[in-house]
Write a structure and sequence with these properties.
mainly alpha, 10 helices, Rhomboid-like fold
Length: about 240
């Protein structure tokens, strides 16, 4: 297929009960798409850095090492009505290293993907994968606080996998294997990583069919992903 149907990726560098990434990643921005401005990735970086500084400087009295986080994903809080946590947890990061690692991957893997697909398509995939990450986190770690963008980032990787070139797929597979190992370290949310990846993989399989099939199904997939995240937090599912 042509670039208009599925974006080719070449090998190159690019994630983070936080979601923490492996440093580096498998892609560079395709030169032919360099003119596209990665608006969504820019917003993710601005919101993540801005929120971290606000929480550290304003809410935590200047503590930028371990600031207070009011937007973390936490099942009981979501169940009590804090539905905004399904989104805000993506922009929350536990410490400066966590923030730096995740934003470095947004600048490499994320911007590469967004330039190749366009901001609209990329935004939809980002929403779906963020909800996928939240869904599995709530399903398997309902009472645990979770924060970080890497569930969504793993979703981008899952979406890229079916449409990447063979060379890029090998590089991505190696990187994903490293992230899989890191995902089982203490304090890292394998649930968030896996959820984002699986929902992203579904997006990638749709993208492999072309843009038109993707856009025909994507709105329903986006609604279903939000519904899944809400459903796993519903009291009926948590009844003893």
């Amino acid at each position: 297929m042509s670039l208009e149907d599925r974006p080719p990726f070449g090998a190159g560098p690019g994630p983070g009960h936080r979601t923490r990434p492996a440093p580096g990643g498998p892609f560079d921005a395709p030169p032919m798409q360099a003119g596209r401005t990665p608006i969504v990735c820019g917003a993710v970086i601005a919101l993540s850095v801005g929120l971290y500084l606000f929480e550290g400087l304003v809410l935590s009295g200047g503590n930028l090492v371990r600031p207070n986080h009011f937007g973390m994903l936490h099942g009981p809080d979501v169940q009590a009505g804090d539905l905004w946590r399904l989104v805000t947890h993506v922009f929350e990061h536990g410490d400066p290293l966590h923030l730096l690692l995740n934003m470095s991957v947004v600048m490499t893997l994320g911007m590469s993907f967004e330039r190749a697909t366009g901001s609209g398509l990329f935004a939809v995939i980002s929403l779906i994968t963020a909800m996928g990450s939240a869904t599995l986190s709530l399903l398997f770690s309902f009472d645990v606080h979770m924060l970080g963008a890497s569930g969504m980032i793993l979703g981008w990787a899952g979406a890229i996998l079916p449409i990447a070139t063979q060379q890029a797929r090998r590089a991505l597979g190696t990187w994903l294997a490293q992230v899989a190992i890191i995902s089982f370290l203490p304090g890292v949310s394998w649930q968030g990583h896996l959820g984002g990846f699986l929902f992203g993989l579904a997006c990638g399989l749709l993208l492999k069919l072309g843009r038109k099939p993707f856009w025909a199904v994507a709105p329903f997939l986006a609604i279903a992903s939000v519904g899944a995240a809400l459903a796993v937090a519903h009291p009926a599912l948590r009844a003893p």
